[in-house]
Amino acid sequence: MFESLSERLDSAFKSLKGEGRITELNIAATVKEIRRALIDADVNYKIAKEFTDKVKDAVLGEKVITAISPGQLMTKIVKDELTELMGGNEVELNAKGNPAIILIAGLQGSGKTTFSGKLANYLKGKKGFSPMLVAADIYRPAAIDQLKVLGGQIGVDVYSEPENKDAVSIAQNAVKEAKTRNKNVLIIDTAGRLAVDEVMMTEVANVKNAVNPQEILFVVDSMTGQDAVNTAKAFNDRLNFSGVVLTKLDGDTRGGAALSIKYTVDKPIKFISSGEKMDTLDVFYPERMAQRILGMGDITTLVEKAQAQYDEVQAKKLEKKIRKNQFDFEDFKQQLDQIKKMGNLKDLMGMIPGVGKAIKDIEISDDAFKGIEAMINSMTPHERANPDSINLSRRTRIAKGSGKELADVNAFMKQFEQMKSMMKMMNKMPMGRMGGFGKK
Ligand code: GDP
Question: For 263, which of 41, 356, 401, 430 is 20 to 30 Å away at the CA?
Answer without folding.
Answer: 356
